[in-house]
Please model this.
Amino acid sequence: MFSISKNAIILILVLVNICRVSAQDTIRTTNIVLQDSIIKNTNNNTYKLNYKHLIAPTVFIGFGIVSLESDGLKQLNYSTRDEIGEHQPKHISLDNYTQYAPAAMVYGLNAAGIKGRHNFRDRTIIYATSQLISAAFVVPLKHIVKEERPDGSNNLSFPSGHTATAFSSAQFMFREYKDTNFWLSISGYSFAVFTGVYRTINDKHWVGDVVAGAGFGILSTELAYWLYPKINGLLTGRNKNASTMIMPLYQNKSFGIGLVQNF
Model:
């Protein structure tokens, strides 16, 4: 019978803390919505990106980046892999599907009559945008960093794309239902944590890869909600002269995010 190792428990606690911090930041901001809210006007879905919502993903992404060079965090990566190897848990491919579970739940709940924040068209635009942004972060970084996977299969380990998708989906579910059913809104994080943990158990990612992936996933969804009014304006023919571009940057061994916006 598989027993959970100390490092596996640490990883689970880290991922659960990601969910808790992200939720707490959003709840705290929602409580002062009249002063400093991400939602400027609910009726026209105009959003104002709040810096508080960027704190958690920035910390998690920073942790992942530091883990690439820090001897201490590298040791955490190796010891986690070694302990998992000692217990020899069965590798399963369920994490290939759980990464999409929260988003699927949003559509299923809406179909069942439990309405979220947006209609089918609007939430589809938002979710698609979040996945495009996530891919824009994750795919180039994999080829830039070239970190070898724990199983040695290739050099595309950092960051974890599965975890990024899982947490972007969970954050999407949270955003859609946090105002009407809080406990329902955070249920998607359980699938995200499962996905992240099993990426390490399946020997596909290091701990730092997973934590960074979670940060990129949360960040991608936050940016998608902020960009939605602008994208919707372009699709409906309004604000034809407006355009926004967000891209990851890498220069002199430093990572960053570039933003270009034309009005």
Remarks:
- Residues 207-235 form the longest helix (29 residues).
- The longest strand covers residues 243-251.
- The radius of gyration is 19 Å.
- Residues 26-44 have pLDDT under 50 and may be disordered.
